[in-house]
Amino acid sequence: MNLNQVRVLAIIAFASIQLQAFSQYNYYFGTIHAHSGYSDGNKDSLTSFMSMPYEDFEYAKHSLHMDYLGISEHNHSGAGMQLANYHRGVRQADSANQEGSFVSLYGMEWGEIASGGHVVVYGFDSLIGWETNNYDIFNAQTDYTGLFAKIAHHPGAFGYFAHPTNSDYNAIYTSPYNAVSDSAIIGTPFRSGPAFSTDTLYSDPSTGNYLTRFYDALKAGYHLGIGMDHDTHYSVFGRSQKGRTVVLADTLTRSAILDAYRSMRFYASDDWNAQISFTANGHTMGQIITEAGSPNLSISVIDPDGESNSSITIFYGIPGSGVAPTALTSVSSSLSLNYTPAIANGTSYYYFARILQADGDQIYTSPIWYTRSDFVAVPELALPAIQYFTITPNPSNGEFMYSFTTSVRLNLMLDVYTAEGKQVYHHPVPPTNGMYAEQVQLPTLAKGIYLIRLSGEGLQQMQKMIIE
Ligand SMILES: [Zn+2]
Ligand SMILES: [Zn+2]
After folding, report:
1. Alpha-carbon gap, residue 7 to 89, rounded angstroms
2. Residue 322 has pLDDT above 50, yes or no
């Protein structure tokens, strides 16, 4: 390598550090709730001459600050949907999609308002329905729990609440927490609509406000992000308003956009190009993390139009506590906020941010769920006095054998924690020296990943175990 090559590398390294100082992702602007003439949309087709998804995607490509559009057709004939047209729509989205410049997505808005609510669904190339000869995959009309299970078990699929009321989706907000439904649902709107806007001058902002349902879901223990939806029914795709769901992704490809939605890496913005970075210890919005120490929360805002903020506020709450989130801290007239709330070891919180811009625009980020667990960061190699800590079988059904070797006589405890850091089992190990093995039967636990900790006398060893 000569000196010039070294210089080039140094410049590249410097440039990438500059970018990462703000965000490791690119920002893509769009919405995933719209209808074509196949399901109650393009209501002005006689004058717009647009009625099919392909035409709608082509229109949206030329709208300002639109990098992607998802058309979410009603899934039933009452709103015009016929199975053959659903398959046509899938093919049209494929041909309209332009990797790298505009992403076209095709999905459905499942259900009826009067029968339990609307769920936006993506990731299936099949129509899910209940009407004779009008579905690829059957799901009874009022069975939302069944719908969520189908989504959860379909790789790459996700559900997103359309315009929720507090009794929707088999009363999901007030029923006991359902982990399968939680894994299926990745988002809910801050705003949706106006669904019947005919404006094409970006001047008909959404006034609906579904924050209370976002709060209800967090209160009930669900993990979901927050977006901004148009629910377009006229030929105005991307132009009725400036509101956007902003996705953080590496590239503007269909797989990257869908992956970002599934990862809850998005935010709801009244503004059409504001870039928000929200992290906890460097982890981006949407993540569920367990780390040692208190979380360093960091928010920064870049608006290419140079708009200023009137405030940034961090909200927080306890997942599944039944209590709504409240404001934690706030800053006025700043484009950034850094804050580290002191939290106790073993506790769990979620955090999200609201940015109020000087022109009144509101922006809500998806949350970060943070569990403080100080033992996870201790390197195992620093603890030579316990060796060969093993768990077998793994995965197990809750009955397993653990074994280890010590060089000195130790008083140890065996503890089992959920991935969120909640202790579910505690067992004193008989004082021992040398090799020790014991069979353990855990109480009945939900399937998932657990942490097994062997600890005592300032020492500890960790193993992950899957229960299935
Ligand atoms: Zn709807
Ligand atoms: Zn709709």
Report:
1. 51
2. yes
Distance 67 CA to ligand 2 centre (A): 20
* 72 CA to centre of ligand 2 in angstroms: 7
Q: What's the CATH fold of domain 378-467?
A: Immunoglobulin-like (2.60.40)
pLDDT tens digits along 386-425: 888 889 888 899 999 998 888 777 888 999 988 877 889 9
Contact 235, 34 (CB under 8 A): no
CATH topology of domain 23-273: TIM Barrel (3.20.20)
Fold agreement (23-273, 378-467): no
Q: With cut-offs at 50, 70 and 90, classify the pLDDT of residue 384.
A: low
Burial class (CB in 10 A: 0-12, 13-18, 19+), 205: middle
**How many angstroms separate the alpha carbon of residue 162 from the centre of ligand 1?**
6
CA of 186 to the centre of ligand 2 (A): 17
Ligand nearest to the Cα of 162, by number: 1
Question: Per residue in 230-264, pLDDT tens?
Answer: 999 999 999 999 999 999 999 999 999 999 999 99
Give residue 363 CA to ligand 2 midpoint distance, Å: 22
Residue 112: nearest ligand to its CA? 1
Domain residue limits, the chain: 23-273, 378-467
Q: How far is the CA of 20 from the centre of ligand 1 (A)?
A: 38
Q: φ and ψ at 238, to 5 degrees?
A: 85, -5
- d(CA 424, ligand 2 centre) in Å: 43
